[in-house]
Design a protein that fits this description.
The complex is a heteropentamer, with 2 copies of chain A, 2 copies of chain C and 1 copy of chain E. Chain A contains 11 helices and no strands. By secondary structure, chain A is mostly helical. Chain A is globular, with a radius of gyration of 22 Å. Classes of the chains: A mainly alpha, C alpha/beta, E alpha/beta. The complex binds adenosine-5'-triphosphate (2 copies) and magnesium ion (2 copies). The site of one magnesium ion has 4 residues of chain D, from α1. Chains A, B: Belongs to the binding-protein-dependent transport system permease family.
Amino acid sequence: MTTRRRMPKRTWLTDSPVAAVVLPIIGLAAAIGLWWGATVAFSIQPYLLPSPWDVVVKFFEQPGYLLQETGTSLLETIEGFLLAIVIGVPIALVIVRSVILERLAYPLLLMVNSIPKVAIAPLLVIWMGFGQWPKVVMVLLMCFFPIVISTAQGMKSTPTELVELMRSLNASRAQEFFKLRLRYAMPQIFTGFKVAISLAVIGSVISEFVGATKGLGYVIQQSGASADTTLAFAAITLLSVMSIVLFYALVLLEHWLLPWAQEKR
Amino acid sequence: MTTRRRMPKRTWLTDSPVAAVVLPIIGLAAAIGLWWGATVAFSIQPYLLPSPWDVVVKFFEQPGYLLQETGTSLLETIEGFLLAIVIGVPIALVIVRSVILERLAYPLLLMVNSIPKVAIAPLLVIWMGFGQWPKVVMVLLMCFFPIVISTAQGMKSTPTELVELMRSLNASRAQEFFKLRLRYAMPQIFTGFKVAISLAVIGSVISEFVGATKGLGYVIQQSGASADTTLAFAAITLLSVMSIVLFYALVLLEHWLLPWAQEKR
Amino acid sequence: MIRLDGVGQVFDGREGQVTALEKIDLHVRGGEFVTLIGRSGCGKSTLLRLIAGLLPPTSGAVQVAGQPVTGPRRDVSFMFQRPALLPWRSVLSNVMLPVEIDKGQGDRGKAAYRDRARQLLELVGLQGFERRLPHELSGGMQQRVSLCRSLIRDPQVMLMDEPFSALDALTRTELSEELQRIKMELSTTIVFVTHSIEEAVLLADRVVVLTPRPGRMREVVDIDIPRPRSLGQNAHLTEVAAISGRLHALLAEKESGEPGVPGEVRPVDEVRP
Amino acid sequence: MIRLDGVGQVFDGREGQVTALEKIDLHVRGGEFVTLIGRSGCGKSTLLRLIAGLLPPTSGAVQVAGQPVTGPRRDVSFMFQRPALLPWRSVLSNVMLPVEIDKGQGDRGKAAYRDRARQLLELVGLQGFERRLPHELSGGMQQRVSLCRSLIRDPQVMLMDEPFSALDALTRTELSEELQRIKMELSTTIVFVTHSIEEAVLLADRVVVLTPRPGRMREVVDIDIPRPRSLGQNAHLTEVAAISGRLHALLAEKESGEPGVPGEVRPVDEVRP
Amino acid sequence: NDDDSGKQAGGDGLQKVNYLTSFNTFGREAYAYVALEKGYFKDAGFDVKITPGSGTVDVMKLVAGGQADYGIGDFTAIAITLAKQKLPVTTAGMIHQRSMAAIMSLEGLGINSPKDLPGKTIGDQPGSTNTVMFPVYAKAVGIDPASVTFLPSPPPGLPALLASGKVQGIGQFVVGQPLIEKADKDKHRKAVVLPYGKALPELYGNAIITRTDMAKDHPDQVKKFTNALLKGLQDTYDDPDGAAEILKKYVPNTDVDVAKAELKIMKDYIKPTGFEGPLGDVTQERVQKVISLLEESNAIGKGAVKPEDLVTMSLAPKS
Ligand SMILES: Nc1ncnc2c1ncn2[C@@H]1O[C@H](COP(=O)(O)OP(=O)(O)OP(=O)(O)O)[C@@H](O)[C@H]1O
Ligand SMILES: Nc1ncnc2c1ncn2[C@@H]1O[C@H](COP(=O)(O)OP(=O)(O)OP(=O)(O)O)[C@@H](O)[C@H]1O
Ligand SMILES: [Mg+2]
Ligand SMILES: [Mg+2]
């Protein structure tokens, strides 16, 4: 007769809000340690992979400059991401509403999504000039697809019994979507957002490779040309930090907006 | 007193399997029409955006060659994608299993995911040579994150009542995962796959920008050498087609594997 | 008020077709209380869904208030067999859902409805639970919330699928009395599915007995006991007993019509002591 | 077999704490059939989950077979209040789930279990539905599948949460007879939640009455009627009526302890022909 | 694997060697394919695999990292990179005796001579030779470097940017002229080329890169390889059309006409008029001159590199 301990184990590590902040930081520290260890153990040369320490030193050589570039990229990322939500969610609504439209629209969405963005970055600049627009559009193109597809999938998986409830209440299509399906899909939509936000950051970088004079993408591009690998990694590190911060901002937002959807393990 | 027609409308367009193939093709044709229309209406010059017709002509100049390069990219894409599944799903299992590990691991995953892949393509070549490996690894890096995150999210959203059922049957953790959570998460996992497959294709292209002598990415890169925008677009079109085909292959697979999860609208 | 003519329903399952209902002819008058009884799986829920306009019948025609049913109507409320609560809404706002959806068309203000909702929740014994989320409630409590939701708009027609199945005897009694009161005050037309023959007799003007596979109407029994009825302490104990006995027999009967022979080897499904 | 000492359960809800159970002391002997009754929301399901090891009590201790409960045990089966069927599995493979999970530890071969599953499905009237998916079944049919699943492994201890609530009177009677047979043949220990006082009396060796908010044990009533019992046609009609009356009174009692006045409003459910 | 890639022997006794072009497979890279096609590599005992490079710095890293044994890169870029990072690479010879760096424009965009540059926008890859050397060039032609705006863009997008008029000029190698003209195939404008080499004749163009340890431990091999490659270069010089055809054979997408035109333009940079030395020649004095120019333009710090950090003189081809 087997009896296994299987009741939910609750410890300080799982429950405390302090642990919820401390553990990811430990994880990050471990990751950085790994990176450092690798540079030391395999004596990787700094032109291939600089050590975290080099990167930190590089950052403090010109913190103001790098932070300003980060700000530029961040702004583009957030604008493009919000635009992707504004455009992506309605597209998902349409797709869920009509099988016919879904079938017509998917190939188009897929086509747009599957184009390698690096290849069309110059095109965007030519069409839209050197301002903010081609950057925002690039971010949008990069990240709208996960938003569309997870919103659509989430709304489609609403349980029949709840859909029937709304119909029995004679709810309009709009009400069915906004009061039920969209709410029900929220956890999955947030999954989409979490995937999209990293892509948005990458989109801003790629867009800054072409025709930009600021932003972290520009810094990387520039440092690549002058073989300043450490500067490139400083920029990449800032990008990672930006991604991580934006991701956890989404996690917090989800926690706050969707208390009913807390995870069950 | 309002009475709206709201019973599920079923017509040839929604039900026939022929329509399920024909409609996407119409959608695609419309998209191509739009593209053509744009090149004509705005008299866009071919070095910016060639017309679909130019692209088709270009393709038939050397169909064998282009198809062969497509095959190369396709192979890399599929290998990397499968590797991403093989690596991503177990990571998701671990994440769902333990809050502590989740909190430790997420920042690392995010860090890896948020690095702009274009920037590290040369690094991969330096580490892994000119063979298949850096390409496969690039595809992997590009697409593992959506797989991890949607698998984890899907498994976390398994209804408490079903989890309690498994526990009451004294199921082991492994059984809980394989017989319940993984199955339950399948629709969401497929959402992740669908997002990931497009990224995988893009990953293969990016990887072929550096140190490759074949593949569609190489063709795009090369077309730059001869200012052959049309060739670049022929390659991009083939990439799109590849993406679309792989996407629909996933849709078919889902349909076949998960008959119980058919969509409700 | 409700009229079904030759209604049939066939489902396409993975394993072939299931005829859930066949040749249902039923006319429910305005203000009438009809209970539906029948073995599990005989098509009761399906019948309600047809009337509610949630499912188009594969044959025959359904009318409500003289109009053919093409979809759900705002004057018909449906209480489902499962509670179907929105998990992100508190108890109170789950009850208020129909009002929100019908905004602008309601005859009272939202505040009035909110008072009504609180009143209903108190009636079913859920005072103090207004702000809880569904997963914090027991099964019976969820069912009661669902009941309140179906009552909030004082609908013309109420379709109720086993509304009291998860409730204890006392709550059940209280709520069936409340339901009778509502019916008499507002002359609501009610179609009510139950597995309790007592409940069927206590509440109904007419009891419809369905036979299983395919679901056909076995018989319609009129109940002429004067209202308000309260079982166990009215003067009609023997009448109730007689009708209940008859309904039991009807349920136990084979589809062919002959009464079940006791002692014979019969499908489990059919035998009754 | 089952022993609860001073068990209490407090939930942390969004809106503050709920004391679901308080000071529960209960000893269930091996082979005993105990039914739990109480108003909706009084903590019956919670009590079963504590015994099943699905929830650690916030106070007190739970023992099964002499061992403290730290998690689910393979010799205890739990039938939930909701059917909880895996939507991607056919009826038959839902029933086979416990066997699959317990593979290697079963005393019979898989084929033997499969036969047993078919036999159980036939017993509950689901022959021919083996290969259907749960969403193609009616509510009562789903509940019967869940019942079969909880019976498949002939467990030592069965915890059943309103197993017959969605079933019609006939099926209910048949299945309660089957349950008594199982209990007597295999001397299974059963804890059974129901809202039907008849069912409680018909099945139980002892009936435990819980009072609501917080759930406390009001009284434990021994039922000494010899088995097999079959309501409505055995020699102990008066005894049954007396006990039922007493249970009613207990349920209706205010928590303070004064008895409800008999002859007062009584549950519908309780008068049977 | 540190240094033995040069010693790896194939089944036929040939040493496997990885060679990287400087950027892509433009016509200007044809000489390697010529050497391959004509068997010069094989005769020297090498089994060469040619892979398109992705810019000087990438090529340097790949060579330094051991993935490639030889590569081609712009000498100025090499000097700047080595001044910043001590990569274990060195130069074994020159392909071009004069820098091919230039500002390129199209007629009608308002640039006809260096004097027109002030106030214009130039698209270029950040950190490219063209951008970095611009201040030196500006000084040489007598304009204010600050009066010209540089707009970053990766090389593949440059021709389209110029053709669309978003920028008035782009940084480009002189051999890019046919390509730029081809990209503008609708308007058929002529390219305007402002080569740096005219004002700054000291600057070298592309150079042959190899690893330092290889140069130290196996100088004979390096010499053999360089000579084989330079033989291909000589043939290309003698017969640009034939070289373009050979390139087309290995890289089917080559636009032969563009490649031929490129190679013809390139002749003047392989052997400028007045150049007397052997093919691939490199001299200490000129290298020193390049370094001073770079120091002058602040592209590198004073004393950051010495000629011997950049070039292994002993490997330089002798006539
Ligand atoms: N979506 C469906 N697909 C296939 N068959 C279905 C579907 N819905 C219902 N059925 C079948 O129709 C029949 C009637 O189902 P229904 O839910 O109406 O029964 P019911 O009388 O409400 O039973 P219960 O008392 O158990 O709730 C059943 O045999 C069921 O298997
Ligand atoms: N997860 C939870 N969070 C907060 N409160 C809970 C939770 N689960 C149950 N409760 C509360 O505990 C009490 C007892 O619930 P339980 O489900 O045990 O009742 P029950 O006796 O089974 O009722 P029913 O007959 O309606 O099924 C209820 O008041 C309920 O609101
Ligand atoms: Mg039903
Ligand atoms: Mg309960």
